[in-house]
Amino acid sequence: MEHREFRQTAAIGPEPERRITELMERYPALRETEAEIRAAFVILRDSFAAGGKLLIAGNGGSCADAEHIVGELMKGFVKPRPVDEETAAAFLAADPELGPLLASRLQRGLPAIALTGHPGLTTAFANDVDGSLAFAQQVLGYGRKGDVFLGISTSGNSQNVYGAAVAARALGLSVIGLLGRGGGKIRPLCDAAIVAPERETYKIQELHLPVYHALCLMLEEEFF
Questions:
Q1: C-alpha to C-alpha distance for 210 and 27, rounded to whole angstroms
Q2: Are 102 and 212 within one domain?
Q3: What is the predicted pLDDT for the residue at 9?
Q4: Which residue of 4, 56, 141, 178 shows the fewest CB atoms closer than 10 Å?
Q5: What percent of the chain has pLDDT over 70?
Q6: Domain annotation covers residue 1
């Protein structure tokens, strides 16, 4: 199976480009991943713009990274994200007392789900069926064509993340990999494979964080 090289010739805009330039200056080791980071941004931007959502999975530290990414996308990261006037008016109409509080406190988000955060479902599936396929089960349940699956694996070979990537590709989702150690068997499934150029787990994770922070910043600037 060949890596599905995803490339977008259209410019991504000055602010996203500035973020990528800044990332490369701060982390020169990531220069070889620059094209894939740009491709990942385009995939995510286009999916969110079309009403899609992001599904994310990983294990251990990568599980924490999945939850971290959701936290940056589903609420304000570095910018305020007030609800629009139509939504504020709808809150007020639904409840004149609570509505103003909702309108002033809630923030617009980009829809993202960490598949790691559903212990009732995943433990039931592990007990009743097959724990290695719990992420794939969620991709089947949540995923729709046009959505994006982001698999995080420092080895590139995590079996449960691999199963989810296979399911995502079969169902017509775009697949992004945040990987290490050459990308492993997950890499060929990816539309964009960001492979940290390190071999040790903690060093790979240290490079994953600035990558996904940059992507979250770029997306926030694009939509808010």
A1: 8
A2: no
A3: 44
A4: 141
A5: 95
A6: no
The model's confidence at residue 224, banded by pLDDT at 50, 70 and 90, is very high
Three-state secondary structure call for residue 149: strand
Q: How far apart are CA 202 and CA 26, in angstroms?
A: 18
Pair (181, 100) in one structural domain: no
| Residue 129 pLDDT | 98
**How far, CA to CA in Å, does 18 sit from each of 14, 21, 24, 67, 217?**
6, 5, 10, 26, 11
196-200 — which CB contacts under 8 Å span 24+ positions?
196/29, 196/30, 196/33, 196/154, 197/29, 197/30, 197/32, 197/33, 198/29
158, HSE (Cβ side, Cα atoms, 13 Å):
26
pLDDT of residue 1: 45
Residue 94's domain comprises 82-108
* Mean pLDDT of the 78-87 span: 97
Q: Look at residues 122, 183, 113, 180 and name the one whose alpha carbon lies nearest to residue 148.
A: 113
Mean pLDDT of 13-31: 96
Is position 13 within any domain? no
Tell me the CATH number at 218.
3.40.50.10490
d(CA 118, CA 142): 13
